[in-house]
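Example record

One chain of 145 residues, shown exactly as stored in the release files.
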Amino acid sequence: MDVQDIVNTVSAKAGLDHAVTEKVVGTIFSVLEHEADGTSASSFFAKIPGADALARKYDVMAAGASGGSSGGLLSSLQGALGGVLGEKTGALINGIAALRASSLDMAQIQKAGATLVQQAEAAAGPDLTNQVLGSVPGLKGHLGL
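Predicted structure tokens for this chain:
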């Protein structure tokens, strides 16, 4: 199973537009790429062809990645918190901001996230998937897992 299979399944099961689903999946993979423990994350991405490329396409640490906000207080706080707390926390903060800016409500984000986890478990195995997710506990909380 490659990343497009995962995007297609998440799109169908969560009832979301394909382009929005790709952004959600790519954003979550980007957070995992930046925050998960190196060895387990590398193994995880190796088992899902195209996942690393999708994570880079929606890189939460790239300039302006937090949903295209035009600045303002929230953007300033995200930048400050990311800088103070380090890249790992910054990736999570930026990723959550990008998900919230994707025009989806929390129920839709949680449905997409839960479906993504199910598909990742099928592709990479439940043990490896849970190990990677376990190293990013803040993401699990925001996805309602």
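Notes: Residues 3-142 form one domain.
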